[in-house]
Amino acid sequence: MHKIDPDECQSCGACASACPVEAISMPPGKNYFEISDECIDCGECEAECGFNAILTE
């Protein structure tokens, strides 16, 4: 499972744009993106993130 580190996320949206199943969004009131349970662990978000904010659990 992939997770976004809120301390490293720069809110650029590159991960959300790369996600083929639209499992990444910015929740209301947050300043970072989160990955939902719909994540298929393809790794596209991790490859696209230039800030190393995507963690693999």
UniProtKB/TrEMBL annotation:
Which segments constitute the 4Fe-4S ferredoxin-type domain?
Answer: 1-29, 30-57
Q: Note whether Iron-sulfur occurs among the keywords.
A: yes
Q: Mind listing the GO molecular function terms for this protein?
A: 4 iron, 4 sulfur cluster binding; metal ion binding
Matching entries from InterPro entries are given as: 4Fe4S_Fe-S-bd (IPR017896), 4Fe4S_Fe_S_CS (IPR017900), Fe-S_Ferredoxin (IPR050572)
What keywords tag this UniProt record?
Answer: 4Fe-4S, Iron, Iron-sulfur, Metal-binding
Coiled coil ranges (UniProt) are: none
List the PROSITE patterns hit by this protein, alphabetically. Answer: 4FE4S_FER_1, 4FE4S_FER_2
| Key word Metal-binding present | yes
Pfam families the UniProt entry points to: Fer4
Official protein name in the record: 4Fe-4S dicluster domain-containing protein
Q: Give the organism, scientific name.
A: Desulfobacter hydrogenophilus
What taxonomic ancestry is recorded? Bacteria, Pseudomonadati, Thermodesulfobacteriota, Desulfobacteria, Desulfobacterales
